[in-house]
Amino acid sequence: MGVNLLGRGGLDDFAAGHDQHFITDVFHYGQIVGNKKISQPKFFLQIQLEHPVGYFLTLCYHQTFLPIHPPTIMKFDAFNRRDATWAKVGSLVGNGPFVLTKYILGDVVEVKKNPLYWNAAHVRLNGIRFFPTVDINAEERMFRNGLLHVTYTLPSLKTQAYRDSKSPYLRIIPVYGHYFYTLNVLKPPLDDPRIRQALNLAIDRQSLVDNVIRGGQKPLYALTPPSAQYQPRAQIKEDVAKAKSLLAEAGHPNGEGLPPIELLYNTSELHRATAEALQQMWHTNLGLNIQLANVAVPAWLDRRRVGDYQIVRAGWYGDFLDPSTFYELFKSNSDFYHTGWKNPKYDAAVIAAANELDPAKRMEDFQQAEAVLMDDVPLIPLYEYTTILLARPEVHGYYSNLLDMHPYNDMYLEPVETK
Amino acid sequence: MPRLFRHALFRLLEIIPVLWAVATLTFFLVRGVPGGPFDREHSQTPEAAQANMSYYGLDKPLFDQYIQYLNNLLHGDLGPSYQHPGWTVNELLAQKVPISAELGLWASLVAIVVGIGVGVLAAVRPRTWSDYVPMSIAMIGICLPTFVLGPILILVFGLKLEWVNVTGWYTASDRLLPSLVLGLFYALYIARLTRGSMLEVRTQDFVRTAYAKGNSSSRVIVIHVLRNALAPVIAYLAPTVAGLITGSFVVESIFQIPGIGRLFVESALAHEYPLLIALTVIFAAVLLICNWVADVIVATLNPKVRLD
Q1: ipTM metric
Q2: Domain assignment of residue B297, yes or no
């Protein structure tokens, strides 16, 4: 089967342009020069990069790099149309290990093994059924009832019980993503960097993950979660006394004279618990009056976009294994977090990193960017995400990895002998 | 019964302007909610955003959109789904309405049979054990919301006894727990309503007359008392049945049932304008029709109503 990657033009109107930022980044690094037929029956895809991109292979895991077959899709006149009839059962043509056989919205998505897959001999699952569950408690009950092999997640309230009982089903996977709050630096009183610093320093992140989140997450003291290649040097040193003196320096000893500050989050059990914990910490440590506001996702995004907030809940999962996946988000021209924060020094460091050939120097550029960020505090990092799920012991080949990607072609079921 | 027929027809015709009003109100109200249907955490280019808006005609003046919508509605076209590209609202409803309707009918059956049964049982010998026990259970049941009762029943019958699956809508036994959970709350309310109404009717003169004529006790209770006591129950049943067959978000979520209750909440959160309006209109239509049926039944049971 011929394989074709999409050029930029097609992607612009494709998929509602949601991954636009990502594509721009990718093609900034290089462009596809063509798919040459080198020797029968194999095809090779050649991509010429403008400069070395050490993490290029992890970039290719991203869904925007999945190959598709344009003529098949064009049969449905579908590239720039949203009604993706080409994606329905019977019309969808892919080159993966499985074929879509059933799709009932809100009920089940079923795939069966693809006998034409190039490596079909090594695919050991006959098929997979995905159940879209709205109620995560129902999902956990389905697992206990033996209806599921693997769950997508686990309610945070139940994680502790599974950990306490040392359940063989529980899997906690560290992932390359983080949970944070962003601050609107254009709105008083958070336009004062000393007050932002004070908020950042007066938090007990360890206590937050141990007592509130309770899912094996690690507290995070920098914008970027550490990885094998990169550990940010600038680390937040939590210090309530220093936070108090910063607040006093800003003219508000013990929070005097400060109006209530609003913390906005999208409605969810965990976001509420986190917000309440932070509200309590800031009140006890700094005497601040924090008001919580929770709204549904569209309103949350809308208010964030127009800057109608003071503190807002945010989170990000890395698209690929490189710190730039986080640092790009806070550049002045970024359309992501709308903190109103701009710093040419930060931009310069991130752009320098993008153009740097030497991997070690690149990481130094990121260190500089991190230092600027930690001085100005347009955001408050809280913890590194984990994926928490239940899997039956007979499920093999479900490996944990930072990008939280679990290809099904390597998974198989094998009964485990009970002793 | 020409008079009853005229009464029924007139009430039926009233439904049409009400539905139009509901569709119109919903059409404008949903657009007033902050946020749009294509907002995501990832930003999109203005061109891509514009392409989406113009694909669905959302860039046209609101009034033009409204006229277009009404025109499509008259032709039975409820529009596309924004969240699920490639699916039309008609397709989604065709998949999900029968499921919610079936669940709702089973639940209504539970509500009516258990409700009236228990109510009659309690009213036959008031202030005895056969009254106190069922009524106390009913009181507890009414206080238990479905999101508490559901998981408790699942825990016992699904996870401990393993008689039924904890979720799904595939086999006959899958119907059992959801119908029970959904119907029971209303059953217990109906039981209290039936009991109260029957106790009131029992004391009336015509009941004493019926006994004096030598009717058997069961005949008096069923023909004379129950028939006259049912009016408030039927009035209550109309909106209840409408609510039950148009889906329950909680029960459908707890039991993983792909019905319209879940669709309703999801479409509201996702700003799925066409789906949201369609579901609101359907709910209104079912409610109005149920009320109409109740009207006709009450009129049949009680000739006095027809004269109003």
Answers
A1: 0.81
A2: yes
